[in-house]
């Protein structure tokens, strides 16, 4: 509903500006609408107009308000006032009523948009995911959920690197070192990779063996292809299991070797030779890119391809299948994203949109896989579920063991996911188990607890024979500030989804979820529900039911569960 309210404000403002003959269309900030503490929405348009028309902004704001014509009926706006240079707009009771009705009917008015392919996670298949991969996967998954809710047809890709040196080392090592079948598949692969990599680094003849394997795989040698596929699929099975624990799935696992054997990579290299600034430095083919100092290496002297050319072929293939391509990359791939953009321009392919995220650290330090020093995603998941279980066991001795474990899993995964997206992707984060699970820190457990609290109120009300879904109860009785603020906050989910989808910033949704939980708890603190008078209890129970619905929705969008008890 807030989107509709905002659109009505925009329409009335434009009419008033045109009546006053103010030229606003060329203003950089447009109508400059913003949420604010003193109104449901405010406009700062008087500031740029004041500079353009050489008048005090408060005079212009007052002039605009005097020209506003708010309809007598069928409007969501109660009134508008000039507060100095600001123009403040306020929603009416009809807006509050319509908001609750929308939630009851679960009407989500999202205009159907185009198709997006979003690639995320795409970790090398030489071992398990670590915490950096988790941030990539969770940012990507929340974006997928948000974009779908915003009306896009979204296809999710995991780009399988089956041709890199690391995979060659694992395949070579697997012929000499047995996989530990007692371990999870991706961890067993990591053990072989670490041991084999040490052998290769110490003996150049072994490295030649790895390179020969890589050449045969690219050439399509059947026996070698079979060995590669077995190793990569083994590792992927473990990675998929880890992702499933985090409520993450991919629609397609796209193997980069497909673009080599299908001829797409050769075609890309041929076109770049024709159109690009190519040179040979004695060891490889280099592509000079305008505005980027570092040249892009696209082919070795022996004619074998590099990941750069394979990436270009993959992106061209993706671009032909959708309207938009989005890649979630770590900060260490920022140069790669710039090179991809420039090279794709040479090929006449629309560049992807990039979501670049900063790294994650733990209080304990490094996350390297090369030397065997890493903390896997599985270890993190186990640890946070274990910590969550300790908290549940401490607080809920009355629950059976299975229920405690279920709640611990839901709270632990929710806490992990929320902490990965609670700040902008371009901000570094330090993940701390204690903080993530602390309800006082107002992360996922706080939001989940708010949902569980709403469920508890409704269960008690039903046990006492009260109706909890009488959405025709008079909203006009909800006059307390905390009641109106909660309804207004509930109305903003679709607005925040649009914002997050447009900016590709999942932290906006995380921020909204926290603020919604805060609003609900303020309402709970100041407005008795079960013990209210009969006439007031009905609309307050409706408000609790609506809050439960939206809290559940926003938790789902964040990829977290919405427990009914904690």
Topology of this structure?
Layout: H1 2-19, E1 33-36, E2 39-43, H2 46-53, H3 57-67, E3 77-83, E4 86-91, H4 93-105, E5 115-119, H5 131-149, E6 153-160, H6 165-174, H7 185-202, H8 204-219, H9 222-245, E7 252-255, H10 257-261, H11 264-275, E8 277-280, E9 284-289, E10 292-300, H12 307-319, E11 324-330, H13 334-346, E12 353-357, E13 360-361, H14 377-395, H15 401-421, E14 429-430, H16 433-437, H17 444-463, H18 481-490, H19 493-503, H20 507-526, H21 534-557
Parallel strand pairs: 5-6, 5-11, 6-7, 11-12, 13-14
Antiparallel strand pairs: 1-2, 2-4, 3-4, 8-9, 9-10
Helix pairs in contact: 1-3, 2-3, 5-19, 6-7, 6-8, 6-9, 7-8, 7-9, 11-12, 12-13, 14-15, 17-20, 17-21, 18-20, 18-21, 19-20, 20-21
Fill in the keyword field for this structure:
alpha/beta; Isoleucyl-tRNA Synthetase, Domain 1; about 55% helix; about 575 residues; 14 strands; Gyrase A, domain 2; Rossmann fold; 3 domains; 4-stranded antiparallel beta sheet; 21 helices
Q: Report the structural category.
A: alpha/beta
Oligomeric grouping of the chains: single chain
Shape label: flat
Largest sheet: 5 strands, parallel
Number of domains: 3
> Count the strands?
14
Total number of helical segments? 21
Stretches where pLDDT falls below 50 for ≥5 residues?
A: 366-372
What is the CA-atom radius of gyration, in angstroms? 28 Å
**How far apart lie the N and C ends?**
31 Å
Helicity level, as a percent range? 40-55%
- What is the level-2 CATH architecture name of the largest domain? 3-Layer(aba) Sandwich
Share of residues in strands: 5-15%
Overall pLDDT: 91
**Quick one: CATH superfamily of the largest domain?**
HUPs
CATH structural class of the largest domain: Alpha Beta
For this structure, the CATH topology of the largest domain is Rossmann fold
């Amino acid at each position: 509903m807030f989107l509709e309210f905002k659109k009505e404000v925009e329409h009335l403002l434009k009419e008033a500006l045109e009546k006053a003959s103010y030229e606003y269309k060329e203003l950089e900030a447009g109508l400059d609408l913003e949420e604010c503490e003193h109104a449901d929405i405010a406009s700062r348009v008087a500031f740029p107009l004041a500079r353009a028309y050489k008048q005090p902004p408060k005079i212009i704001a007052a002039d605009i308000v005097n020209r506003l014509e708010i309809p007598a009926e069928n409007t969501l706006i109660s009134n508008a006032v000039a507060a100095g240079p600001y123009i403040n707009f306020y929603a009416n009771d009809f807006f509050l009523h319509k908001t609750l009705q929308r939630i009851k009917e679960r009407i989500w008015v999202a205009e159907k948009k185009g198709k997006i392919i979003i690639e995320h996670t795409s970790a090398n298949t030489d071992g398990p995911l670590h915490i950096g991969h988790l941030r990539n996967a969770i940012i990507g998954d929340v974006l997928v959920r948000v974009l779908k809710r915003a009306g896009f047809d979204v296809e999710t890709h995991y780009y399988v690197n089956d041709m890199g040196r690391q995979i060659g080392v694992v395949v070579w090592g697997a012929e000499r070192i047995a996989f530990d079948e007692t371990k999870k598949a991706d961890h067993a692969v990591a053990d072989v990779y670490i041991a084999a990599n040490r052998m290769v680094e110490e003996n150049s003849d072994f490295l030649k063996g790895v390179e020969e394997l890589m050449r045969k795989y690219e050439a399509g040698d059947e026996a070698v292809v079979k060995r590669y596929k077995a190793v990569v699929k083994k590792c992927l099975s473990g990675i998929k299991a880890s992702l499933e624990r985090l409520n993450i799935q991919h629609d397609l696992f796209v193997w980069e070797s497909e673009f080599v054997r299908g001829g797409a990579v050769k075609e890309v290299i041929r076109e770049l030779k024709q159109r690009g600034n190519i040179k040979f430095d004695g060891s490889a083919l280099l592509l000079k890119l305008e505005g980027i100092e570092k040249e892009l290496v696209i082919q070795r002297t022996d004619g074998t391809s590099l990941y750069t050319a394979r990436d270009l072929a993959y992106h061209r293939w993706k671009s032909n299948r959708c309207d938009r391509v989005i890649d979630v990359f770590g900060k260490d791939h920022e140069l790669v994203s710039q090179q991809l953009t420039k090279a794709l321009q040479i090929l006449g392919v629309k560049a992807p949109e990039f979501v670049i995220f900063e790294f994650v650290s733990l209080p304990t330090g490094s996350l390297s896989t090369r030397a065997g020093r890493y903390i896997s995603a599985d270890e993190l998941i186990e640890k946070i579920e274990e910590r969550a279980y300790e908290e549940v066991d401490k607080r809920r001795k009355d629950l059976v063991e299975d229920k405690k474990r279920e709640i611990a899993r839901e709270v632990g995964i929710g806490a992990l996911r929320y902490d990965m997206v609670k700040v902008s992707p371009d901000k570094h984060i330090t993940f701390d188990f204690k903080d993530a699970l602390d309800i006082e820190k107002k992360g996922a457990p706080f939001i989940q607890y708010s949902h569980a609290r709403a469920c508890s109120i409704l269960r008690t009300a039903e046990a006492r024979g009260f109706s909890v879904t009488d959405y025709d109860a008079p909203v006009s009785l909800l006059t307390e500030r905390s009641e109106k603020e909660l309804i207004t906050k509930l109305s903003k989910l679709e607005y925040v989804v649009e914002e997050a989808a447009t900016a590709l910033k999942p932290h906006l949704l995380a921020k909204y979820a926290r603020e919604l939980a805060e609003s609900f708890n303020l309402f709970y603190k100041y407005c008795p529900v079960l013990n209210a008078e009969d006439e007031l209890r009905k609309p307050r129970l409706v408000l609790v039911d609506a809050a439960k619905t939206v809290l559940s929705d926003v938790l789902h969008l964040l990829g977290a569960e919405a427990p009914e008890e904690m």
